[in-house]
């Protein structure tokens, strides 16, 4: 089965590299980062009431804490941001001695731990790694990573999804209750016209929705790895997705315009915007609430 739907523009924000989108049900808002713009963005479910916060460093990914403070995977450190006071506290350095890399994709697992990884900005060489934050420091789960992406977790938390955008493969990894990794399998391989695997989210049925950078689409993969719903976009650089709205039945999508030429910008004027696909109304699909970081944080 291969069903299709088109995403429509929600917010014409023209970010350089929008990523890491999440729905916060308590706020009734979407949050995402423009990595290269060093900005955390948010808006309501319809793309209104836009707010931005700028930072000195690039934000690869982030996670809300149970008290609504925000863990930020900045380019070379993990930091804690308090939106109420504006304070920013360094928690742990991450690859601070590796000038080629910065932090990239990340998500909270079903047990409330933040898992995130980096990218080599000079050719996607395997110089970075994937980490798990334990409240004190970033524990290295595995290395040899060119560009960490597609970090997501099955509904029961027993499987982790991961893709290195330097290749075409999405992996499924056994993920123990204590956060220890087990066996790794090839979950799906992208075709030549599908671009590179970027950010992902998992729906209530356990299917993976993968953004395909350069492929102008989001592809839903069923738990057995087969292709199902395809979401088409009018822009090529599709970066991440999340389920949101009060019923978690809308798929919100970030896009980018990284390294665009003038001709590309003219051909894709809404690139870097936020898009939405009504997958609940069309197919009856709903998502899962975004997990929050529930671990301790050392003073």
TrEMBL record:
An example Gene Ontology biological process: L-ascorbic acid biosynthetic process
Domain spans labelled SMP-30/Gluconolactonase/LRE-like region: 17-257
Pfam families: SGL
Annotated substrate binding sites: 102, 104
Cofactor note: Binds 1 divalent metal cation per subunit.
Name the record gives this protein: L-arabinonolactonase
InterPro entries referenced in this protein's UniProt entry, alphabetically: 6-blade_b-propeller_TolB-like, LDLR_classB_rpt, SGL, SMP-30
Protein family per UniProt: Belongs to the SMP-30/CGR1 family.
Residue sites binding a divalent metal cation per the record: 19, 149, 198
Catalytic machinery residues: 198 (proton donor/acceptor)
Keyword Zinc: yes
């Amino acid at each position: 089965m291969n069903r299709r739907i088109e995403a429509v523009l929600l917010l014409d924000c023209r970010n350089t590299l929008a990523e890491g989108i999440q729905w916060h049900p308590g706020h009734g808002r979407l949050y995402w980062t423009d990595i290269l713009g060093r900005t955390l963005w948010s808006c309501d479910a319809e793309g209104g009431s836009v707010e931005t916060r700028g930072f000195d460093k690039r934000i690869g990914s982030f996670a809300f804490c149970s008290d609504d403070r925000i863990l930020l995977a900045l380019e070379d450190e993990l930091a804690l941001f308090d939106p109420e006071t504006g304070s920013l506290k360094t928690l742990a350095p991450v690859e601070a001695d590796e000038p080629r890399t910065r932090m990239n994709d990340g998500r909270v697992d079903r047990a409330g731990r933040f898992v995130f990884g980096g990218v080599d900005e000079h050719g996607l060489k395997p110089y970075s790694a994937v980490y798990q934050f334990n409240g004190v420091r970033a524990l290295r789960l595995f290395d040899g990573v060119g560009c960490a992406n597609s970090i997501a977790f099955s509904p029961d938390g027993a499987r982790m999804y991961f893709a290195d955008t330097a290749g075409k493969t999405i992996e499924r990894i056994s993920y123990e209750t204590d956060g220890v990794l087990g066996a790794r399998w090839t979950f799906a391989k992208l075709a030549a016209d599908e671009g590179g695997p970027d950010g992902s989210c998992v729906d209530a049925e356990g299917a993976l929705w993968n953004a395909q950078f350069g492929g102008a689409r989001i592809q839903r993969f069923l738990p057995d790895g087969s292709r199902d719903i395809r979401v088409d976009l009018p822009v090529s650089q599709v970066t991440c997705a999340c389920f949101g709205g009060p019923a978690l039945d809308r798929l919100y999508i970030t896009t980018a315009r990284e390294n665009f030429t003038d001709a590309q910008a003219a051909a894709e004027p809404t690139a870097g915007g936020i898009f939405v696909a009504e997958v609940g109304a069309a197919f009856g699909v709903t998502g899962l609430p975004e997990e929050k970081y529930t671990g301790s944080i050392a003073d």
